[in-house]
Design brief:
281 residues; mainly alpha; 2 domains; 10 helices; 80% helix; 0% strand; elongated
Length: 281
């Protein structure tokens, strides 16, 4: 596992360096320190999102031993990053513009920077604590709450209570909060129907086939024991004759009248067992 950790750290270091090089061309030189601090906070937040959200997503799969932890990490690294790149723009826009809004005039732009950095760091710290304690929390709840809390604090300390409350887009917060309620409800309803389908079409038939196969195997075992018990009651010469027929490797080489009834019965039972495919469903 140590080599895997070193490999992951090397990829992380290369990615972080590439990000700083890429971002530098978009940032005025006198804001590079601020850009560096914000980037570190963002990386810390992303680290904790990965630790908590990936565990939420893959906890059931790893727990069911469908995938290993290493496989889950590789899958998550590819698809969480892809999701953020291809489908995360609207979420980013809502968090950037739809939660806290400043008055058009008389507001220092750097205050908005401080709000976002405060929300980023506080959310990252809370996610880190929750992950260490094994709590599967919502990262969306954390960042939205951090932005609202930092915005209200700044508003109360610089503009007064009325303006501070007016800064928060409560309608947007309401829509986000509704999604927090709808998401688990929809997830529960969909999982109910999906699991119901899996149970009726896969689990129950598989259990039925497995039980049928066990019954046939028990019957074959009971037939063997019963046949041997009956064989012991026969004269020694009869036992030798019957056992000689059983010992023949290929019944096709023996006249049909001389074929072992025991071997024919066992063969028929095995054929019935082969007809039952427990993995068919």
């Amino acid at each position: 596992m140590r080599s895997d950790n070193l490999f992951a750290f090397a990829i992380f270091a290369i990615t972080a360096f590439g990000f700083f090089v890429w971002g530098y061309q978009y940032i005025p030189t006198h804001h590079f320190l601020l850009f560096s601090i914000a980037s570190i906070f963002g990386i810390f937040m992303a680290f904790n999102i990965g630790g908590n959200d990936v565990a939420n997503s893959f906890g059931t799969s790893v727990g069911a031993k469908t995938v290993t932890i290493k496989q889950a990490l590789v899958i998550a690294a590819i698809f969480e990053l892809s999701g953020a790149i291809f489908a995360g723009g609207e979420v980013t826009k809502t968090i950037r513009e739809g939660i806290v809004s400043f008055p058009q005039e008389g507001t220092e732009p750097m205050l908005f920077v401080l709000i976002m950095m405060s929300a980023l760091l506080s959310s990252g710290i809370w996610l880190f604590i929750a992950s260490k304690k094994g709590l599967p929390i919502s990262t969306t709840h954390s960042i939205v709450g951090g932005i609202v809390g930092a915005g209200l604090t700044m508003g109360f300390t610089t503009m007064g209570g009325d303006k501070a409350l007016a800064m928060v887009s409560w309608g947007e917060i309401g829509r986000i909060a509704v999604s927090w309620v709808i998401s688990p409800l929809l997830g529960g309803i969909l999982s109910y129907f999906i699991y119901g389908y899996i149970k009726s079409k896969i689990l129950i038939p598989t259990r039925k086939f497995t039980l049928e196969l066990k019954v046939l195997k028990r019957e074959r075992k009971a037939y063997k024991e019963r046949y041997l018990q009956e064989l012991k009651t026969k004269p020694e010469s009869e036992q030798i004759r019957i056992l000689s027929k059983i010992a023949v490797l290929d019944d096709d080489d023996v006249e049909s009248g001389e074929r072992s009834e025991y071997k024919l019965a066992i063969k028929a039972m095995k054929e019935r067992e082969k007809e039952i495919d427990t993995s068919k469903a």
